[in-house]
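Researcher: I'd like a structural prediction for the single chain below. Treat it as a standalone chain; there are no partners to consider.
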Amino acid sequence: MRQGLEGCEFSHLSFQEFLAAAEIKALKQESKLYPYLKDANISNKDKAWWCGTILLYASQVNPIVLIEEALKQDAPDLAFDCWQETQYTIDPIIEAQLKTLEPTLRSRRYSKLELLLKAGEWRAADRETYRLMITTVGKDEGQEVDREDLENFPCEDLRAIDNLWVTASNGHFGFSVQKKIWEKCGSPMSYNNGYEKFMKAVGWLRGYNFVSYKEYKFSSSLSPTGELPVDFEIAHYLGPARGMSSVRCLGTLFSRSDL
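Model: Treating it as a single chain, here is the predicted structure.
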């Protein structure tokens, strides 16, 4: 394994992270994680490996000492995420401290998306939306969001993403914008005429053909209302079979009362 941990390297990063976390727990060697707390973050691909390992470890133990160490090293983002991962009750004083960090950390987490949207970089913002959503549900980039992910996606984060899109596009883009169109088409939960009507309305279907992602206009003035965001579940332009997976995911998302 990389970064000085001995053993094999696996093609799937999450498996490697899990084994590293399990080994550290089994050997009671939590201190081996401390040198990586301050720098572990998802924006740096090399250091992101340590972020995943640390969070997986935190989910298996009472991470109070780990959290205190992260706060001491000025790594509040990681401390907060470790707290979110644990099922244990931690010290009330530390918990109160972490709760006060939440608004600031959420604002920081979405700062890149906000900058891209304000600049009208719609395509890049779409990719950043996918990255935010996939990492929020604890998956690796390159994986897909599924129905269970969307059912359990934190409401505060969903609203934050949606509000940024709606505000920047003057109501032209956003999940809530798509939801209104979906409802006008009969709130379809299966691949039927209502769902095809919805896809045509937002520009994802032309005639009987799925529109390629590269053909999207990515413009608040030229794109159909509700064309974006879409990259969190790109199945609809990869063919009919994948499209059926997409309709179930989108139906799950749009059925949420907090959107």
